[in-house]
Fold this protein.
Amino acid sequence: MSRLFPALDAAGHKPALRFGDRALDYVGLRAAAEALAARIADAPRVALWATPTLESAVGALAALLAGVPVVPVNPRSGNAELTHIIGDSAPALVLSAPDVQLPEALAALARVDVLIDVAAPVAWTREEPGDEEPALIIYTSGTTGPPKGAVLPRRAIRATLDALAEAWDWTEGDVLVHALPLFHVHGLVLGILGPLRRGASVRHLGRFTAEGIATELADGATMLFGVPTMYHRLAEALDGNPRLAKALAGARLLVSGSAALPLRDHEAITAATGRQVIERYGMTETLMNTSMRPGAGHRPGTVGTALSGTELRLVDEDGQPIRTPDGETVGEIQVRGPNLFTGYLGRPEATADAFDDGWFRTGDMATIDPDGSVRIVGRKSTDLIKSGGYKIGAGEIENALLEHPGVADAAVTGEPDPDLGERVVAWIVPTDPADPPAARELADHVAQRLAPHKRPRAVRLLDALPRNDMGKIMKRALRE
């Protein structure tokens, strides 16, 4: 069995991780991770207090080297969510940076401080587990109930990272900069484990700033990972900032994920830098499914085509495959491949319900173009609106609304309507709160770009949209 991180043996004193002014080369990283792995090797499962620190990265790597499943915990979670996750996953101990005060919900767990000690390497000889053994247990966002622990095997991590390396030409020469949280797939699996599998380097900012991004890209970083909120702030900061424009233009790859990047931000960044932001599509349960390819000319609004080894299909409301994708017919995405999780921890019924004869039911609604490009239109549970006999995806209406100059941010939901079944409701953050666009103006704007039946029938104004740590709109909070 090949090692999950072969660069630990081969990369020598090449830079591996940097968080602010603290850094480890591959020799030091291996020493620190193996020393910790030896301390936790007998634990059946561990939690990781996933702050954006060097200790979190070393802790995750050590657990993977030891073959101990690790549960990344969001430090910003409330007490009820923390209590649920710890009770559900039952870790034997929690890994944390030494100077962190842990909340009451973790008080009953034995604590192991992650010490960055590279002076006394241990003789680590334990064989790595097989590909089907659990590596990570990452909890879903809990939008339709309590969060569920998705058990991700080592095979899924290997498959996703290798498929992305192929799609993005990701090599040991790349230097990734990001400021994403480390408790979820984007920041931890792609943003930390991805470079370490390739033998590349990571520079984590700790906290996102446009200035910090510009500094790192100007100093040799080649790749940037972010979420739409970050790219929106970069797009705004580009005006009158030639240093930032030059830094972004010099990046080899700009990747956005976790939610759709609005067209206007795509256009602003491309106009200022000549670079296209690459979007990809994944989930906690599937890791990565699709991606745009650099230079392939995918249009903004799509998330590219299926990654190597991953199969996608659309199914209709009766669960029947849509045989000939035409770019117009909306269906639910189902996924099959080595990137899939093995199940929800302790929930065999939920696991069985999530699969259809080996295909994972994503709950995401999309169209697929004849060339295989996927366009997400929303979640089946929250973003598919059935109005007047039509099936409407909230995502495409949100994108259309964001093209209006009077709209700073937008979300779309459906609500019961005695005539239409459901009506389209737009939640708008106006660019100028003192002079918001009229509801009729926004309805006409959408009707002209999409179709008359997709226009909002009601418009509600907000100061800000509720978003989670990954920048996704919490639509349940809007309805409440």
